[in-house]
Amino acid sequence: MHPHPEPEHNPGGQPSEALKKTAEADDPMVLHATWISGDPFLMLDSLIEEYARMGFSAAKIRGLFKNAGFLATYSLTQRFGEEVVSQRIETVLQKCGVLRFTMQAAAPQIPPCSKLAPGPHRSHHDV
Fold first, then answer.
1. What is the pLDDT of residue 7?
2. 58-66 helix and 82-96 helix, angle to the nearest 10 degrees
3. Beta partners for 3?
4. Facing residues of 22 across strands?
5. How far is Cα 67 from Cα 112, in angstroms, rounded to an integer?
6. What is the mean pLDDT of residues 108-121?
7. DSSP state, residue 119
8. Which residues contact 68 (CB under 8 A, 6 or more apart)?
């Protein structure tokens, strides 16, 4: 096994001890892909929908299916071909859309006292 690669951004310039360690065959932190039985079209649609719900565009999802670094998505592209995967991406996105949101912090809008409704002030004893 090869040692873990050095991270791209490393302010100290030296890899941590954990990154210097080589993976061992019985290392419980090493992930191993396993084939399972099931409907590959359901897996394809589910992965597309998952990425769409995380806000990925069709182009970005398509890129994941072309990238050999992503075993599940790449394997589905190898099985069905890029044209079928692209068609499924479009079909799934038409059905579920792509989650998009923005957050905007704003100060609470409290009207000045002069704009409050006129009338006698009440205390909690008046209720």
1. 39
2. 150
3. 22
4. 3
5. 57
6. 65
7. S
8. 74
Q: Which pLDDT tens digit goes with each residue over 29-84? A: 777 667 778 899 999 999 999 999 998 999 999 999 999 999 889 999 999 999 99
Specify whether the CB–CB gap between 60 and 51 falls below 8 A: yes
pTM of the model: 0.55
DSSP label at residue 2: P
What the block records as the tokens of 67 is: 């990238």
Contact 58, 48 (CB under 8 A): no
Q: Which two tokens stand for residue 26?
A: 């019985």
Both tokens of 54, joined, read: 């995380």
Q: d(Cα 99, Cα 17) in Å, to the nearest integer?
A: 39
Q: What is the rounded average pLDDT for all residues in the chain?
A: 78
**DSSP assignment, residue 111?**
-
Q: Which of 52, 127, 60 is nearest to 94 (CA)?
A: 52
